Amino acid sequence: MSKARNMVVAQSGGPSPVINNSLRGLVEAARGFPQIGTIYAGWHGIEGVLKEELLDLSGQPADEIALLRVTPAAGSIGTCRYKLRESQTEDFERLIEVFKAHNVGYFCYIGGNDSMDTANKVAKLANERGLGLVGVGVPKTIDNDVGDSAFKLIDHTPGYGSTARYWAHMVQFANEENAGSSPADPVLVLQAMGRKIGFIPASARLADPQRELPLQIYLAERPVTLEQMADNINGLLRRAGRAIVVVSEGLQVADIGEVKDSFGHTQFSSSHLTVAQAVINGLNARGLPVKGAARANVPGTDQRHNMIYASTVDLDEAFRAGQMAAELAAQGTSGYMSTILREPGEIYNVRYDKVPLAEVANSERTFPASWITPDGTDVTDDFIRYARPLIGDDWPSIPLIDGRVRLARLKPLFADQRLPKYIPQADRKLSQN
Amino acid sequence: MSKARNMVVAQSGGPSPVINNSLRGLVEAARGFPQIGTIYAGWHGIEGVLKEELLDLSGQPADEIALLRVTPAAGSIGTCRYKLRESQTEDFERLIEVFKAHNVGYFCYIGGNDSMDTANKVAKLANERGLGLVGVGVPKTIDNDVGDSAFKLIDHTPGYGSTARYWAHMVQFANEENAGSSPADPVLVLQAMGRKIGFIPASARLADPQRELPLQIYLAERPVTLEQMADNINGLLRRAGRAIVVVSEGLQVADIGEVKDSFGHTQFSSSHLTVAQAVINGLNARGLPVKGAARANVPGTDQRHNMIYASTVDLDEAFRAGQMAAELAAQGTSGYMSTILREPGEIYNVRYDKVPLAEVANSERTFPASWITPDGTDVTDDFIRYARPLIGDDWPSIPLIDGRVRLARLKPLFADQRLPKYIPQADRKLSQN
Fold first, then answer.
1. Residue A37 CB-density burial (10 A; 0-12 exposed, 13-18 middle, 19+ buried)
2. Nearest CB to A280 within list B170, B270, B280
3. Å from B138 to nearest chain A CA?
């Protein structure tokens, strides 16, 4: 047996436009370290690791790995929403078995706070079992809700800049529609992702840092009543004749019920009624100037799988965060997440560093209350200064073949299965229900 | 008084990503003809002409007119949904007065079938009044519903190719999300525009001409029941484990009520419940494998105001259709619409020509029934052969300044008002209600 030990990488949670570029950074950097052997991906996240479904990334054509830069979301290796709870001891033991069976010495988890917690627990347990596993995390989330509120552990997560750019540009285009539309159609409601935290809807302000557009932004952090919204919007209509209204999917509007998903998250994307729908119904019913005056766009998952809007800054940072994780792994620095920290100064610059997984897992980021304007319909210039650099200054370069986007297509090269079949614990419970 | 007579151009109906490029073609070409004087735009369409709100396009900086290429929708000169009915004789007489007062000899209307009818009637009446007005139409609609079903009057309308490209690429990206998503989240419903005609949802097939993706497409032409849909989708889930379902906003699903707008059109974008929402609620309620399994994206107006997806073929054709209209006007060829006709042969090529406005106004295009597959969940290769060339092979080039899109910004140069104030007839009725 060579001294090199193999690596398993897995993704968790909702995807981002740049998640695959972190994967690419990891794979391309890990290839350069002799102590790292074959790199496997858990097929659909940690569930794939539990089921011993390990996709061989080292065996893929270099061209396809390179194309991960322009391939959004998680179609290449998959993701999952499987939560590894402390009580699921069988699952943890199974992971150790899989790692042993495939000589895995490095485990990299790309995800949010929960994933960093999982990576930490897995590495700890493996080391208790004498496996000497190096566990490393790579940050990812469009919501920008990883780390602390003081931005000390991480300035922003890869993924956020691209979704912010989506909103910055999409709102600019939407304004051309709204400005040109007929007086009978003056209100356009746009529903943004971010169930609990306002970084995504806030980024709509990047479309208009000078505040020239008739734009109102409602974050989940500030519950409103339909009456307040209608008053605000009618005021804007009187001043500007039209209104673009960005609402968080998690906005609590009095008299609109909430729907919870199986994780207990407020869940609108598969709910009975989206916030946007409820808001336009409510507005149309109560005293907007013209009947049928409000319409809504719900871009939904598009804002996290659209490569055309991807920020080149975000793409590059995602790649570097992946590279950094490979380096941490190769150095044997277990229990850390690669991170992006902003350098002081007027000109945007970042450095790549590491922070303990345990600290990330125990932190909770909130949108700074001081970045929300007192009337609750906008964000401040401090937010603009924070977010503006993240959307970059260039278009991504995306190859086309025969009119379609040329996306990475990985070959189905799976590691031989050496262990008995295994059903992840939470899936067993699910199938009993 | 110089022999040159002035031109009025106006837009009507919903915008498209390339409508301004037709305007640019018109303006840039008309400038070259000595018989055409100042070019005015009706501010917000024909309503602006009635109100004598005439934006001077000839006085705009050449740079801003050039930027109309990358400026989507109708924010620059506005559009309206004002319908000029034959019975509104006061409106027609008012138009003549406005044209006389501003020495207008050329009237160009950019729009769909109704607009071609209006352009024709206006030119006829003006000529009965001895005004010698040249009335010319420029085709525009993302729905591709202008002209005849045999594609003899026009092969396709400017605007359609860009919205088709939107769907081709957006579905490719959505597939990356759907392929990577957790097994608990296997159905993604995407709602496409096109209240009555299926060209837009059909273009989702351009994402996957080889039929490798788990994609079903439901056109407004084929009413379904929720039960049929659930059966179809469950079948796809059994085969592929996941499903991308494109539904027309005008799809008639049994047990889902319809909502009509003020024109009597079925109107979902500002309705009580969108089709997508109703479909996912229905699917989630009846026996998809996992609870909460279907989610929906409703891109809404984004598909007609998104410049990033614009087809370069569509952009160029829209420009040429505008140029052609200027040429028809300059030649005094009244009563015609500029048109795009496909040349025979395997390699896509078009020529620009003219067709009588009256013929266009009296025609009705339908989506060829033979292009819908027998099971009603897909379109055929004939559709692909028709639509594929329209989405082009290149990305549009869109300038950025400080991270934002640099859009055309016209100056508010309005012609002096020489007539008494006038309230368009239909607006009077509206304010009485």
1. buried
2. B270
3. 18
Checking if the pLDDT of A281 tops 80, the result is no
Give B-chain residues touching A15 at CB under 8 angstroms. 176-177, 180-181
A68: closest chain B residue by CA: B176
Predicted confidence band of residue B97 (pLDDT cuts 50, 70, 90)? very high
In the predicted structure, residue A89 carries a pLDDT above the cut 60:
yes
Task: Provide the pLDDT confidence category of residue B386 given band limits of 50, 70 and 90.
Answer: very high
Q: What share of chain B is helix, strand, coil (3-state, %, to 5)?
A: 35, 20, 45
Q: What tens digit of pLDDT does each residue of B65-74 get?
A: 999 999 999 8
Interface test with A, best of B302, B312, B410 (most A CBs within 10 A): B302
Output the pLDDT for position A290.
53
Q: What is the pLDDT of residue B289?
A: 55
Angle at A227 between CA A185 and CA B281, to 5 degrees: 70
What does the block give as tokens for B326?
Answer: 């200027």
In total, the C-beta contacts within 8 angstroms joining chain A to chain B are 233
Residue A416 DSSP code: P
Neighbours of B422 (CB within 10 A): 16
CA A295 and chain centroid, separation? 27
Considering only CB atoms, B180 lies closest to which of A74, A293, A307, namely A74
Asked if residue A257 has pLDDT above 80, the reply is no
Cα–Cα distance for residue pair B10/B430, rounded to 1 Å: 22
Question: Nearest to residue A78, comparing CAs of A141, A143, A15, A162?
Answer: A15
Among candidate residues A91, A114, A117, A143, the one labeled active-site is A143
Active site residue A143: yes
* Across A49-59, average pLDDT: 98
Q: Chain B contacts of A307, Cβ < 8 Å?
A: 173
Mean pLDDT score across all residues of chain A: 91
Token code pair at residue A234:
């009618």
User: Would you state the pLDDT for residue A264?
Assistant: 41
pTM (2 d.p.): 0.94
> Is there a contact between B296 and A269 if contact means CB atoms under 8 Å apart?
yes
Strand ranges, E, within B77-219: 104-111, 134-139, 187-192, 215-218
Contact B177 A400 (CB under 8 A): no
Residue ranges in B57-159 assigned as alpha helix (H)? 62-67, 89-101, 113-128
Place of tokens 């119904």: A281
CA angle A171, B272, A260 (to 5 degrees): 75
Mean pLDDT of B219-228: 92
CA-CA distance, B416 to A68, in Å (whole number)? 57
Q: Is A135 helix (H, G, I), strand (E, B) or coil?
A: strand
Question: Would the CA dihedral through B37, B43, B49, B52 be positive or negative?
Answer: negative
What Rg value do the Cα atoms of chain A yield, rounded? 23
- Rounded distance, CA B267 to CA B286, Å? 26
Select the residue of B77, B180, B394 nearest A75 (Cβ to Cβ).
B180
Three-state DSSP state, B260: strand
pLDDT digits (tens, 9 = 90+) for A336-388: 999 999 999 999 999 999 999 999 999 999 999 999 999 999 999 999 999 99
